[in-house]
Amino acid sequence: MKRQLLNHLFTTGLALVVLLAACEKNVADSNTPGTTDRPSLPPAGSMTVDMSAFEGGATSLAKSAQPASKNNFANASIRVAIINTAVIVRLAPPTAVFAAALTDTPSVDTKGKYHWNYELIQNQINFQAELTGWIEIKTAKAKWEMVVSAVNTNPVLNDFKWYEGWANLLNTSGQWTFYDSQKPTAPQEMITLDWQYTNETNKSLVFTNVDPTNPNYQDVLTYSALGDDRKIEYYDMSTGFNSIVFWSDSTTAGYLQVPDYNNGEKAWWDENHNDIVP
What is the value of pTM for the model shown? Predict the structure, then answer.
């Protein structure tokens, strides 16, 4: 797993919540971009990644005092910590900005587009945000755009389109495209996020690097939850390597499988994080 990819893959342009959902629509007028129906804000879990099972594991290994019997879990924790820092920490501002929309009352324009306009201070940054959502008749999808302004960022953001996306009308799948906030005057697509969501125990989030100027172009990170199972899978396009971290949400037992550890074989640990051979 390449740290350079993960640090670039989830920059502040990424948002740690996905904004995709929609309600039922009227289809009487196919010549208008939307209807007067108000699209529903999406569930927060459509973009959240829960890696709390590994909290503290990387710290123990970093102290060089980790017992040999826990090497597998500790090694996995180091790798998960890289993702956690790159994703969760960096997603905090956009996640907070979106969450504020949940308590705001939108206005609707003559084209059936709803606008949430509000202000939020996050990490000492004053964001002026406008979330726009509408139901597009032609494609039968809900469409979303988030535009923000902030003067105390570097660079300054002025009506910067942070991300845009769509959702199907059953609110079970969609896609987001995120733009690099370090290039506000020359918008650059950075990440696409394809998601499927039923609930927190049945969902899949797939992050793809879509910036052709980045050396990690087309690398993919997938997070999935199915019942009690949790899995992170990372595909390195340049090498063709797959890296997997799998664990139980209830017990935290699991395994690590990466090309550069344990000869590429699954390295298991139990609910006490002790190395095991199943």
Answer: 0.80
Q: What is the amino acid identity at position 151?
A: V
| Domain regions of the chain by residue span | 3-276
DSSP one-letter code for 258: B
Provide CB contacts within 8 A for 126, sequence distance 6+: 119, 120, 150, 151, 152
Residues in the chain: 278
Q: Look up residue 50 and give its two tokens.
A: 């829960």
Residue 5: which of 179, 152, 220, 181 has the closest Cα?
220
Alpha carbon distance 96, 195 (integer Å): 20
How many other CB atoms are found less than 10 A from the CB of residue 227? 10
Q: Are the C-beta atoms of 85 and 243 separated by less than 8 Å?
A: no
Q: What are phi and psi of 35, to 5 degrees?
A: -115, 180
Q: Return d(Cα 102, Cα 116) in angstroms, integer.
A: 9
Residues 85, 90, 93, 98, Cα dihedral to 10°: -100
Cα separation of the two ends of the chain: 25
Helix or strand run (H / E) with residue 268: strand 267-269
> H helices then E strands: how many in the chain?
4, 14
Q: Note the pLDDT tens digit of each residue in 237-275.
A: 998 999 999 999 999 999 999 999 999 999 999 999 999
What six digits make up the tokens of 102? 């949940």
